[in-house]
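Per reviewer request, we include the raw input and output of the structure prediction for the construct analysed in the revised manuscript.
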Amino acid sequence: MTSRMQSPHTTCPGCQEEVFLDELVGGKCPLCGCSLEEFDETFGEYEGILDRSDLSWLIFNYFVFKKFVDLGVPPHQIMEFVAAYEQNAEKPPEEWMKTAFTLEIPMLWHDRIRPKRCMKCGTWFFTGGKKQISGDMRRTALNTEYVCGRC
């Protein structure tokens, strides 16, 4: 609780409630929607927080994170993917149109006992290896692929 109190905050001029900078939505109060322009001028070093608090971007990140966590992707892989996707958005349009991804997921019990074909070398294997999902952020379909331990 003490770390939260040390976060930069102010009183909203519209609703007179205490508002933390990382809660602002597009530079506005999340409670009443009042603009905090004078606050932006005072605390210029927190512009990164204000840019990332865009409501649509937060919703997008939440649903991407939730979908991949439900599939079993480790959280650090998801965070790396979202960070790479965010960096691509700052590049020219031909660069940020590259939205393909490949993430590793755990094998289920029936995946461990059935024969699998390696997507890289084409050999059949029963044990070991990795299960991966690949897809494109512009499409809903996901491809499930297996990679043997040698590749």
